[in-house]
Design goal:
Two copies of one chain form a homodimer.
Chain A lengths: L3 H8 L2 E2 L10 H15 L6 H5 L3 H8 L5 H23 L7 H16 L9 H16 L2 H26 L6 H11 L2 H6 L1 H5 L5 H4 L2 H29 L6 H8 L4 H27 L4 H21 L13 E2 L13 H8 L4
Parallel strand pairs in A: 1-2
Helix pairs in contact in A: 1-15, 2-4, 2-5, 4-5, 4-16, 5-7, 6-7, 6-8, 8-9, 13-15, 13-16, 14-15, 15-16
Family (chains A, B): Belongs to the terpene synthase family.
Pfam families (chains A, B): Terpene_syn_C_2 (PF19086)
GO molecular function (chains A, B): metal ion binding; terpene synthase activity
Chain lengths: ~350, ~350
């Protein structure tokens, strides 16, 4: 087990000056979530594998001060999302057929959004309908709307990834960043933060380009962390397409070590931007917005802490923490998907 | 020219007790839109065909009291949408390949949403980026966000339709209604009403299930009207898949005349619901919400008035107006996509 990829990962600690956090009711939330999963009986994924996602721990790291009942509802979606991802997005008959994935994606989206009975018998659709009903019961209509729109964004991103896989297309880096923002599930996950907190962020704040940029920046940092964590797993399973490391390897003549180094540089520049932009957004922001920004930070840190323990990533050891970014340059990355985020630092 | 389909259409006037309306600056808006189109030079569609969509007239019927500058920006999107629809969704290399449509759809969505340069040279992406910049200049961040989310919903719906076409799949009626709500472009069109009006509807109202149901109901009535109008055109062009008439013909043993009759009954029941639900929404609603509801009604009527004159539908004569619905039953239609809308009539 001394392959270069592991050495590469072990060499490079992440820059993440955010303290760890965890909701105190995590054990209770997990117990109740597991009971729900047993009732829902999602096919195609084993109970062991599903519980091994530690989704309760995952989301409890994101909203340490959340309302327990609401955090449970959000946690159910995280479990559901991992199961759907495993059985319908990453592997299986739909994973390389956009023509088969799209009807399934729109079916579950309908189940999520429709208050009445969704008229469906697919267990995934029924489980998601139940989650939608819970959100309508504990969240405001605007929070629910934001979540459902973010959920659609995720599904469209996954459909695009499925199309790339079907066409054996390897995206360039800018295109990949855009794709990854869709596929990573960051949008629906971050949309559940204010649901978990039980405090609606005013629309004038939440819909501003600045807060949109900050939210996507947090999602992308977490997604790139997952790319680095999962690269070894995906290599073992032969699924190494569409990962930031393989995209970099494909785009220019890097060695594997150079590609991992470049990926961490990219990720650390985004992390630095997140910290600066968080500071900018907090200034003058409402209390719910400030709590939301805190949770975005908890999310970045929590995602790493979770990944280092979770069986999904096969117990990679800790990469350790770096005091400073591998690439300290404060100027924008030259990729259209993200470069405008730096403009939002302005006064 | 005495085929049964024409007779069927001529026999059945629409139930639509809403007065016609038109923005007084329509001629000026059209002139400025045409100048923009000439600058943008969208490929694949002739100038004549594009101007023949009468998109300025179309949208000016929706917001007769709108702010001229804002109505112009919205009008540009209507022209753009028709061009994109014709060249990328309904015909051409992408129209039956979800794997090719999805990268294009996500590319233009990115151009719409990204404030900085989108890093693209596709004329459709550049034109849509220009429209996005106009919206950011004249609308609130929340209005822009609602439009961009609605735009994504449209593109996902079209992708699904493309997948159905590729797989030669004819949906059942419930599935079709859900599909049609996505493909019809009603969501982005209706999201431009409050931009045209220059008055933001508060999120607590706009995101409520009741207003969502009313908005989708208006879109679906207009979409079914378009289905009926375009059925003849599509028959001539050999594109008769995925139209409410063909779906009904496919689902049960109807004659063509019976299928058209059933389609108008369905449409008229939705029209009746729209009127009742409008009344319910208006009661206690804010002034911007009431104006928005007015515009939804103008939209239904305006869409018909526009369709009867536009070359796109080859100058069908007026079907005339009916005083009462062909099917007067007030109870919910038994399709999960729409049945919950009737629940929103409750106190």
């Amino acid at each position: 087990m001394t392959q270069p990829v592991e050495q590469g990962l072990e060499l490079l600690p992440f820059y993440c000056p955010i303290e760890p956090a965890l909701h105190p009711a995590v054990a209770d939330i997990e117990t109740r979530a597991v009971a729900w999963l047993d009732r829902m009986a999602l096919p195609g994924v084993s109970r062991k594998r599903l519980l091994g996602t530690r989704s309760a721990e995952f989301f409890c790291r994101f909203v340490p001060q959340g309302v327990t009942h609401n955090v449970l509802a959000a946690t159910l979606w995280v479990y559901w999302g991992f199961a759907f991802d495993d059985t319908r997005c990453d592997t299986g008959a739909l994973a390389s057929s956009p023509g088969r994935f799209l009807p399934e994606a729109t079916r579950v989206q309908h189940a999520l959004e429709t208050p009445g009975g969704p008229g469906l018998d697919d267990p995934y659709a029924l489980a998601l309908h139940d989650i939608g009903a819970r959100f309508r019961g504990c969240a405001t209509p605007t929070q629910v709307r934001r979540f459902t729109e973010a959920h659609r964004r995720w599904l469209l991103g996954v459909a695009w990834q499925v199309a790339n896989r079907a066409g054996d297309h390897m995206p360039g880096l800018d295109e990949y960043l855009r794709l990854r923002l869709g596929t990573c599930g960051g949008a629906p996950t971050m949309a559940m933060l204010e649901i978990g907190l039980g405090a609606e962020v005013p629309s004038a704040e939440m819909d501003s380009p600045r807060v949109r940029a900050l939210t996507d920046c947090a999602s992308l940092v977490a997604a790139l962390d997952n790319d680095l964590h999962s690269y070894r797993k995906e290599r073992l399973l032969g699924q190494t397409e569409q990962n930031v490391v393989t995209v970099l390897l494909h785009e220019s003549p890097h060695s594997l070590e150079q590609a991992v180094h470049a990926a961490v540089c990219l990720r650390d520049r985004l992390m630095s931007l997140f910290l600066r932009l968080s500071h900018r957004v907090r200034r003058g922001g409402s209390a719910p917005l400030r709590s939301y920004v805190d949770c975005l930070g908890h999310g970045i840190r929590g995602n790493i802490d979770w990944a280092l323990r979770v069986p999904r990533y096969q117990g990679l050891g800790t990469p350790g923490w770096s005091e400073r970014p591998l690439d300290p340059r404060p100027d924008p990355l030259p990729y259209s998907t993200v470069s405008w985020w730096w403009d939002e630092l302005r006064e």
